[in-house]
Design goal:
Blueprint (H helix, E strand, L loop, with lengths): L3 E2 L9 H23 L5 E2 L4 H6 L8 H20 L3 H5 L1 E4 L2 E4 H23 E2 L1
Parallel strand pairs: 2-3
Antiparallel strand pairs: 1-5, 3-4
Helix pairs in contact: 1-3, 1-5
Length: 127
């Protein structure tokens, strides 16, 4: 099946911006998961995704460069979670006012990624 990529004006971010948002989110949630797993009791703040996106300079980056970063980060995230014991994965922490386990943050990373991939497929890829 042939796919064509097109720009849909009604969505707030471009494909590159969505991909960098996925990267930012994974990096932040991966760090939080590490902190929770190590029993860090810091109450982690939320983050302003629109500010992160506005300042991500995606117009100066190629899709290839963004995907290279994504692949490296994903490998790092997988390595992080593979190295955590069951006990560590169950440890809880608070981020953005919500309590969660290190494991739950891993599930968030995966679900968030899939959510945005679906947005790209539905809004930007014409089949």
């Amino acid at each position: 099946m042939r796919c064509e990529i097109f720009i849909r004006k009604s969505y707030k971010w471009s494909i590159k911006e969505i991909l960098v948002h996925i990267i930012d989110d994974e990096r932040i949630y991966g760090y939080r998961a590490l902190c929770f797993a190590r029993n860090d009791k810091t109450n982690f703040p939320g983050f302003e995704q629109d500010e992160y996106n506005f300042n991500s300079d995606t117009s100066e980056r190629t899709i290839e460069n963004i995907m290279e970063e994504y692949e490296a980060l994903r490998l790092s995230t997988i390595t992080l979670f593979n190295g955590l014991s069951e006990k560590s994965l169950k440890r809880m922490g608070i981020a953005n006012g919500h309590q969660a386990s290190a494991r739950a943050l891993g599930y968030h990373i995966l679900g968030h990624d899939l959510h945005h991939i679906k947005i790209i497929e539905n809004l930007y890829i014409k089949r």
